[in-house]
Amino acid sequence: MRIGRVLGVVTLVVLLAVVLWLAGGGRLPSLPSAVPPGATEPDVPGDEGAAPAASGTPEVPADAGEAWVRYVHDGDTLFLEDGRKVRLLGIDTPEVGEHLECLGDEATAALRAVLPEGTHVRTVADVQGLDQYGRSLLFLFTDDGALVNLDLIRSGYAEAVVLEPNVLWAAELEAAEDEAQAASRGIWGVC
User: Fold this and answer.
1) 3-class SS at 62?
2) How far apart (Å, rounded) are the C-alpha atoms in residues 166 and 21?
3) pTM given for the model
4) CA separation for the pair 172, 185 (Å, rounded)
5) Is the pLDDT of residue 135 over 70?
6) Residue 169 has pLDDT above 50, yes or no
7) Please, what is the Cα angle at 5 between 3 and 10, to 5 degrees?
8) Enclosing H/E stretch for 120
9) Where are the alpha helices (DSSP H) in 66-185?
10) Quick one: how far is CA 133 from the chain centroid?
11) Mean local confidence (pLDDT), 16-34
């Protein structure tokens, strides 16, 4: 009985994420904030007059590759039609499956909502093309110019993990994490 109730709640969360994504024009939905109703979100120290450029979305580079999504495995790993297994650069999402972590299934559902099978993406590699498991390390842009890696962080489904020598857009990723933490979005408010 309890498993059925949990599955029902997870299904509801996934459906809500898809509806919010569609209503938001294809951008990743934000999870509900952990800020109590009627309260204001906390101020970010040192935010007064700060330049918004660090949290902006980078432009799709002219030399970005082109690919199509075959299958999303979890919140930060997917397969492309050309056979590549991709690990999204600069992020880490909660685990799924046997080692399930808080919001792992929701992060996977969010990525699947943004990158359903057959979705066209633009690909950008950094210094290292592959990780130790042979996965392609990539940033992915949607056709509307959204940087998927960055939007997962902004929405609270992922944390920024910038590992040298792959430091492309590190400032934007870390600024997005700071914003998500300050707003208690996703993993920063729920887990």
Assistant:
1) coil
2) 29
3) 0.73
4) 17
5) yes
6) yes
7) 95
8) strand 120-124
9) 104-114, 148-154, 170-182
10) 21
11) 42
Q: Which pLDDT band, with edges at 50, 70 and 90, does 17 fall under?
A: very low
Handedness of CA 129, 130, 136, 138 (dihedral sign): negative
What pLDDT shows up at residue 92?
98
Residue 34 has pLDDT above 90, yes or no: no
Gap between the Cα atoms of 131 and 150, Å rounded: 20
Q: What backbone phi and psi angles, to 5 degrees, belong to 123?
A: -115, 140
pLDDT of residue 32: 36
Name the percent of the chain in helix, strand, coil, to the closest 5: 35, 20, 50
- At position 104, the amino acid (one-letter code) is G
CA pair distance 65, 191, nearest whole angstrom: 35
Q: For residue 173, what are its two tokens?
A: 């990723």
Strand partners, 137: 87
Q: Quick one: CA dihedral 44, 50, 56, 62, positive or negative?
A: negative
- CA distance readout (Å), 111 to 14, 60, 76, 128, 147: 11, 19, 8, 23, 12
Question: The tokens 């992060």 sit on which residue?
Answer: 107
